């Protein structure tokens, strides 16, 4: 059964964040809040956790396109090819924020991302995922939580999310109601921004 942790952005309790970190280091899956919708996350370096994440999304891991959640732009060079100054400036002006930026990947990607030529990078404007990544010491893999209802595309109520994912994840972070609009996906691989999906963020 999933453990519900009430962690609020105004005053995230360190002991609860540490519990989340321990769970991620032990291969657990979490549901966490962001500046857009609630999302599923796990340790990018734990292949079994990544496989569980893919199973929940009913995808094959090698074909899954899970974003990488960073707490700032310092992790870019770990996973992406060198980027132009103009592209870096473009990113810096919009992050943290409700965007997923597609960039050319380098060969240092974690095993679960093997053979991926591009990678989606997120830096949410929300203290909880930022704190988790900072304390974990590296980014986490992430994918939005979708609702089965086609009208309500994303689940917003953490209590209902916890009920639905009770036996699938280890921790649900209850940070109050989430948003119902996902991030805007922007492809930067050509050097010019191309909006792939219009979401919360405005370019």
Task: Record the SSE blueprint.
Layout: E1 3-6, H1 14-25, E2 30-32, E3 39-43, H2 47-56, E4 67-69, H3 76-79, H4 85-94, E5 99-104, E6 118-122, H5 127-136, E7 140-144, H6 158-164, E8 171-174, E9 184-187, E10 194-197
Parallel strand pairs: 1-8, 2-8, 4-6, 5-9
Antiparallel strand pairs: 2-3, 3-7, 4-7, 5-6, 9-10
Helix pairs in contact: 1-5
Brief synopsis:
The protein has 203 residues and is an alpha/beta fold. 26% of the residues lie in helices and 21% in strands. The longest helix has 12 residues, at 14-25.
Main beta sheet: strand number and arrangement? Answer: 10 strands, mixed
Low-pLDDT parts are: none
How are the strands of the biggest sheet laid out side by side? 1-8-2-3-7-4-6-5-9-10
Order of helices and strands, N to C? EHEEHEHHEEHEHEEE
Summing up helix and strand content along with how strands pair, one would put the structural category as: alpha/beta
Entry keywords:
ten-stranded mixed beta sheet; 203 residues; alpha/beta
Q: Can you walk through the features of this model?
A:
With 203 residues, the chain is an alpha/beta fold. The protein is 26% helix and 21% strand. The chain contains six helices and ten strands; from the N terminus they run E-H-E-E-H-E-H-H-E-E-H-E-H-E-E-E. It has helices at 14-25, 47-56, 76-79, 85-94, 127-136, 158-164, and strands spanning 3-6, 30-32, 39-43, 67-69, 99-104, 118-122, 140-144, 171-174, 184-187, 194-197. A ten-stranded mixed beta sheet has the order 1-8-2-3-7-4-6-5-9-10, sandwiched between helices. Helix 1 (14-25) packs across helix 5 (127-136). The protein is globular, with a radius of gyration of 16 Å. The mean pLDDT is 94. It holds the Pfam family Sua5_yciO_yrdC. Its EC number is 2.7.7.87. GO terms for molecular function: L-threonylcarbamoyladenylate synthase. Residues 14-201 form the YrdC-like domain. Keywords: Nucleotidyltransferase, Transferase.
